[in-house]
From TrEMBL:
Keywords: DNA-binding, Transcription, Transcription regulation. Residues 9-69 form the HTH tetR-type domain. This is AcrR family transcriptional regulator. One of its GO terms (molecular function) is DNA binding. It comes from Mucilaginibacter lappiensis. It comes from the Bacteria.
Length: 202
């Protein structure tokens, strides 16, 4: 039984990994069953023997893609020694998200939020939760910086966290729709400025 479960888990993971880029590029509605069978080499029965339906595959893929981004960011945050540098990781990682191991198709948060906004409440809720958790992580870093004496004490923490997220995601959207990566670079300079302005005057 253990081996059976282990095999099932491996098959699910295989399906998720093989279809991650497709869902992230085409979206839920744009991804067909034939896309899934072609990418995995599995039959419809094999896919739906491991997932109830296409939505369940899409949810697992979103969780996989967003975890991939989170892992990248955490890796660099853990290496940074100051709270300023930890926050700056967000600007730096997204500045070169095409060069690092981001999911194929770009930012899964933006892609899923836009794709599922009025069409899929389950995926919309998943994307919303990722944004809420992201906001909390930024708030924790700002609070840590205040406690450590690195940042000013009068910062509007929730507003700053939301502004950083909005600028990053908005910058990605503008760069994508205009096919001009330099637009994202310009927006990320504003993120850089916001983070730098949190510091106490020395």
């Amino acid at each position: 039984m253990e081996t059976e479960l282990s095999k099932a888990a491996r098959t699910r993971q295989f399906i998720v990994e093989k279809t991650a880029g497709i869902f992230n590029k085409k979206g839920y509605a744009g991804t067909s069953l034939s896309d899934l069978t072609e990418a995995t080499g599995l039959t419809k029965g094999s896919i739906y023997g491991n997932f109830k339906n296409k939505e369940e595959v899409a949810v697992a893929v979103f969780e996989y893609n967003s975890a991939k981004v989170r892992k990248q960011i955490k890796h660099f945050i853990d290496q940074a020694s100051t709270y300023h540098d930890k926050l700056m990781v967000y600007a730096q990682v997204y500045h070169r998200f095409n060069a690092v191991s981001f999911p194929e198709g770009g930012c899964p948060i933006l892609n899923t939020a836009v794709d599922a906004d009025d069409t899929n409440p389950v995926l919309k809720e998943k994307a919303a939760q990722v944004v809420i958790n992201w906001k909390k992580r930024i708030e924790d870093l700002i609070e840590g910086g205040i406690t450590a004496g690195e940042f000013k004490t009068d910062i509007d923490i929730p507003q700053t966290a939301l502004s950083i997220i909005a600028l990053i995601e908005g910058g990605i959207m503008i760069a994508k729709v205009t096919n001009t990566p330099a637009n994202l670079d310009k927006v990320l300079k504003t993120v850089d400025t916001i983070i730098t302005q949190l510091k106490t005057s020395m």
